[in-house]
Amino acid sequence: QVQLVESGGGLVQPGGSLRLSCAASGSIFSTNIMGWYRQAPGKQRELVAFIRSGGDTHYVDSVKGRFTISRDNAKNTVYLQMNNLKPEDTAVYYCNKYPPWPSWGQGTQVTVSS
User: Stretch 85-94: mean pLDDT, rounded?
Assistant: First the structure.
């Protein structure tokens, strides 16, 4: 059973930045595509970005050019650098593999507001 622990969220003004981290237990981390997802109030959880074990990345259009996903396989950790944040980025952010395991971490709240 893989455990996922997200951190780094908070309240930030529009145009600000945050860096999210996700620590994953389990030895299979390095072989999996890892992703960041988010769920805004009243909306379904959606994929934001993923990164393959070799470093290739994919982003949804709404975050391209603003968010950067990265990973450290030695630390079983995946990161999401978020720049130029917008109010519509407000959500609980989760990490999981892509496609996701059935179980999720607690997520980390990101609130973009002036």
Answer: 98
Q: Which of 114, 95, 73, 66 has its CA nearest to residue 2?
A: 95
By DSSP bridging, strand 46-51 and strand 34-39 are antiparallel
Two tokens, residue 107: 């997520």
C-alpha closest to that of 48 among 79, 21, 15, 58: 58
Please name the residue that has the structure tokens 């593999």. Answer: 97
Extract the tokens encoding 37: 């997802």
Q: Is the pLDDT of residue 105 over 80?
A: yes
CA 66 to CA 58: how far, in whole Å? 13
Buried/exposed code over 85-108 (b: 16+ C-beta within 10 A; e: otherwise): beeebbbbbbbbbbeeeeebbebb
Q: What is the pLDDT of residues 19-59, one digit of tens each?
A: 999 998 865 677 889 999 999 999 999 999 999 988 999 99
| Element counts in the chain: helices (H) and strands (E) | 0, 10
